[in-house]
Design goal:
Helix 7 crosses helix 13 and helix 9 packs parallel to helix 10. It is built from 15 helices and twelve strands. About 50% of the residues lie in helices and about 15% in strands. Helix 10 links the parallel strand 2 and strand 3. Belongs to the CN hydrolase family. Apolipoprotein N-acyltransferase subfamily.
Length: about 525
Amino acid sequence: MRTQANANLANNASYRQQALELLLILTTVGFFYLAFPTGGYSHFAWIALLPICLALTRQTPRQAFVSGFLAATLGWIFSIWWVVPSLSAISNSPIAALTPLVLIYCCVSALPYAVACWLHVYFNCGKSIHGALFSALNFTVFVNYTPQILPGNLAHGLYNQPLFIQAADIGGVALVFFIIHSVCFLLANAIAIDSKRSKQKLGCVLLAAIVFLANYSYGYLKIKQSQAIDLASSKQINLAMVQPNITIENRSREDWQQLAPELMTMVRNIIATEPVDLIIVPELPVPVSFQHFSFDKKQLSDATQGTALLLTAIKPIADNLADSQGYFNTMELVLDNRLVQNYAKQVLLPFGEYLPFETSLPWLRKVFPGAANYKPGQSKALFELPLAEHSITLVPLICYEAVFSDTVGQGVALGGELLINTSNDAWFGNTAGQKVHLALSSFRSIEYRKPLVRNTNNGISVIIDPFGQQISSSKITPHSQGYSVTTLTIAPMQSFYQQHPNTLKWIFIVLAILTITTKLVNNKKAGN
């Protein structure tokens, strides 16, 4: 009887432990959702993984892998659920066909977290200061340096807290991610370490405070620099962002011809009332092009009256949009009513702008009959905008090209001074997709210390300065038709990340490999 009672007690204790671990995992899922731009409570990024770290303290490596996979999969599902209806709207594809694809994406995106959790337990990282830093390094390497379709993580949740993300000018998003998770794992270890090891516990807390305050101080000093820009060596431009707010139900040339006069009236009003060097018209759900449609050329020429125009357009490969050869998503620079340059988007959205594997799997077209047939451009182009006293080199970025640092870096390396990102985020409706797109793009301004002009069809349209701060006067009310005119100062600034974009990446990767190898060798020796 006593043996049976002991077994029952052990089972009850095991069930309670499993329930507690599940609760901690779900708490991390909740914190992940809140910290991501979807939730809007960015400060949770600092402690999002703390609950699961506590859950891992009594788990085996295999259990840790499952816990990490479960937490990250659920975190991604809750944070990017809006992708399904958005892709359905963009591609005219059934939600039932897209849902499994997004679920698979969430599972694949969870794997780096699962592997990092496995390493955390396998190398017993929850019991020391160096273990916390080692785990932060592993998470940083696996989450940031594996190929991704949507390169989002907890660091992006701090996009509206520029004070805490200035270190991106040294090591990009990955360094901000490392700082956040160093603090998180140090605090988790301070809780998990046995109370008899009070020095280790105190050391974890003190180092977490030092890392947090050092990051805060660096951000404070950098933002103070934004108030001391040398105007004598800077350039200025008056630019107008137009937000047409055209609904996604309008898709055809006929729809555009009905809507164009109202938009042209707005452009005329801007020209008549504001001193403008450049007018930007964003990506729209309707096909439009100064170069390829005579109607558009006349309407835009009459409205702009020779003012420089940057138009996001479409370029058929053949003579018409219906041709099976497809088309390019382009940006056109029009000066004095004449097309002088264009750029074809290089990074296309899978299922939204093209159908992956269509050549080898032609039956996919039957499953996704409405998927677009855009083709990628082959080279990066810069736009040279001549002004009265100087010229400004623009880096064109269409839609989600701005979320990829390498793509932006190509333009900056060629001499780009001003980042221009146009998009049609109307596909997201009233979901958090607009905030997520803005958050992922915002980091480019800090990484390269270049202003980012983000002009969208229905919001969020805003200009972000080189320190990640939104210029409030430039913001246009989302989900409304309107415009803003902003005098923007462009200072000749460079960052360490701009000059050495891969340095910290390789330092982190080499450190992770060396540390893992050393620990494996030491474990093997200890086993012998």
